[in-house]
């Protein structure tokens, strides 16, 4: 499974999850063109499913994100 993020801070949080080889995260920057490049990269790496994930971190950099579980 591949996950596309727009911000490296979001990608770092996802990469820290204990899911091992079952999750590949790509961050090519914000915006639709960057998301398309990230998706193409993940598909090229053999990911059979893709998801997009973001935490709106750009709205308030003082906010902290804590992930409690993987759904």
Give the tags.
single chain, 71 residues, alpha/beta, 3-stranded parallel beta sheet, 2 helices, 3 strands, flat
Seen as an oligomer or otherwise, the chain set is: single chain
Span from first to last CA? Answer: 13 Å
Classify the helix fraction into a percent range. 25-40%
Gross morphology is: flat
Arithmetic mean of pLDDT: 83
Number of helices: 2
Compute the gyration radius: what is it?
12 Å
What kind of sheet is the major sheet? 3 strands, parallel
Strand segment tally: 3
| Secondary-structure-derived class | alpha/beta
Strand content: 15-25%
- Spatially, the strands of the biggest sheet line up as 2-1-3
Instruction: State the low-pLDDT regions, or none.
Output: none
Element-level helix/strand string: EHEHE
Give a verbal description of the structure.
This protein is α/β, with parallel strands linked by helices. It has helices spanning 8-15, 32-44; strands at 2-5, 24-27, 50-52. The longest helix is centred in the middle third of the chain and has 13 residues, at 32-44.
């Amino acid at each position: 499974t591949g996950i596309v993020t727009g911000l490296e801070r979001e990608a770092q949080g996802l990469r820290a999850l204990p899911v091992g080889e079952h999750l590949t995260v790509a961050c090519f920057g914000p915006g639709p063109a960057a998301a398309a490049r990230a998706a193409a990269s993940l598909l090229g790496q053999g990911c059979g499913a893709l998801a997009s994930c973001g935490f709106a971190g750009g709205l308030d950099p003082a906010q902290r994100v804590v992930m409690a579980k993987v759904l």
